[in-house]
Amino acid sequence: MQAWICDNPIGVDALQWKDLPTPEPGPGEVRLAVRAASLNFPDILIVQNKYQVKPPLPFVPGSEYAGVVEAVGAGVTQFKPGDRVAALGSTGGFGTHAIVGADRLMPLPPGFAFEHAAAFAFTYGTSHHALIDRGMLKAGETVLVLGAAGGVGTAALQIAKAAGARVIAGASTDEKCALCKELGADATLNYSKENVRDALKALTDGKGPDIVYDPVGGDLAEPAFRSIAWRGRYLVIGFAGGGIPALPFNLALLKGASIVGVFWGDFVRREPRANAAALAQLAAWYAEGKVRPVIDEQLPMSELHRAYARMTGREVKGKVVLVNA
Q1: Apex CA 118: angle with CA 165 and CA 110, to 5°?
Q2: Is residue 139 domain-shared with residue 99, that is, in the same domain?
Q3: Tens digits of per-residue pLDDT, 156-173?
Q4: What would you report as the CA-atom Rg of the chain, rounded to the nearest whole angstrom?
Q5: Where are the beta strands (DSSP E) in the chain?
Q6: Which segments constitute the Enoyl reductase (ER) domain (predicted)?
Q7: How far apart (Å, rounded) are the C-alpha atoms in residues 205 and 207?
Q8: For residue 53, what pLDDT is reported?
Q9: Secondary structure (3-state) at 217
Q10: What pLDDT, on the 0 to 100 scale, is given for residue 171?
Q11: Does one domain contain both 88 and 134?
Q12: 64 forms bridges with which residues in the sheet?
C-alpha cells in the first residue's frame, strides 16, 4: 500500500508519500481499500499538532473516506469483503488502504457514490448534531450559517432547509453567496462587504436569527452574537477564521441566549446509537435528494498538497475530494 505519512507534525509540507506493508486487520477491525477521501479543516490542524486529537507518530492523516472492505478481523460479523462503506475515522484516509474499527463504518446504500460518501459523514454528521441535537432546531426558525459556502457550511444550509428552517447564508464573496442561493438559502450576507449587525437586523425584521451556526470564529463572532434572537442558540463549531473569540457573557444574559459547544467526534464516541440514528436520517435525506455534498474539485490522491493549499487559501466551495484510481 501507499500513504501520506506524518512523522513530524510541523505542517503540510512535511507530509511524505511512502510505500508501506499492507496491514492485516486486528480483532474488531477491517481493512478498507480507499476509493475516495475528502479534506476537512481538522486535517490541517492535526498535521500542525494543533488539533484536540493528537495521534501517536507516525500516522496517516485523513479523517473522512470511503471504499470497499477487503478483509475483516476476528469478531467482525456485520461486514464482509466487498461491502461498500464510509469510514468515520480520525486518521488513515489519505492512502490506498486503511485499517479502521468496524464500529466506525457506515454501510453505503445503493446509489451512494464513493465521492459523495467521502464528503458526507464528517460535515453532515457535524451539522446534524449541531442543528438538530444541540441546537434543537424547529421548523420555521431562522438560522444564520457563517462560512456557508464551505464543507460544513453547505451541509448546515441543506440540513436546516430539510428541517424546515429559513436560512441566511453568510459568506466572504459574492460568488460564494451565489452558490448558497443555488443550494436553497433564503437570503445571503457577504460579511466582507456588509455590516453584519445592520444586515441581520434588516433580514430578520429586527428579531435576529434563532440559531447562529459558526465554524469561523474570529471577528465575526461578536457582531453575530449581538444580533441573535431572544432565547437564541449560538453553536460553536470551530475556528476556521483563525482566532478564538472571547464573547462578553453579559450578552448571553441580556438575550437569554445559549452558547452551545459542538464536538461531533466525541459525540460519535460517547453516543454511538444517537449518531447512528442521525446518519440514518441523513442517508434517507440523501436518497430523497434533500442533501447532496458540494464537490468543489476532485483530485488524484497524489495531489494532496494542492488540496491543502486550496483549503488554506480559502478557495474551496464545499469539499475537495481525493481519489485513488
Answers
A1: 85
A2: no
A3: 999 999 999 999 999 999
A4: 20
A5: 2-5, 16-19, 29-38, 64-72, 84-87, 97-101, 105-107, 142-145, 166-171, 187-190, 211-214, 233-236, 258-261, 295-300, 319-323
A6: 11-322
A7: 6
A8: 85
A9: coil
A10: 97
A11: no
A12: 38
Question: Is 133 part of a structural domain of the chain?
Answer: yes
Angle (deg, nearest 10), helices 272-287 and 121-128: 110
Which cell numbers hold the place of 39?
Answer: 479534506
**Residues counted in the chain:** 325
What residues contact 150, with CB distance under 8 A and at least 6 apart? 215, 240, 316, 317, 318
CATH code of the domain in which 113 resides = 3.90.180.10
Same domain, 100 and 159: no
Say whether both 151 and 254 belong to one domain: yes
Supply the pTM of this predicted model: 0.86
CATH number at residue 164: 3.40.50.720
Q: Which domain holds residue 106?
A: 2-120+293-323
Is 282 among the domain residues? Answer: no
- Where do runs of H (alpha helix) occur along 219-288? 221-226, 249-255, 264-270, 272-287
- The helix/strand count (H/E) of the chain reads as 11, 15
CA torsion angle 103 104 109 114 (round to 10) = -150
**pLDDT exceeds cutoff 90 at 242:** no
Taking alpha carbons only, the member of 235, 220, 213 closest to residue 160 is 213
pLDDT at 314: 84
Give the three cell numbers for residue 321.
Answer: 475530494
Q: Which of 135, 73, 138 is nearest to 99 (CA)?
A: 73
Q: Which residues touch 258 (CB under 8 Å, ≥6 apart)?
A: 231, 232, 233, 234, 252
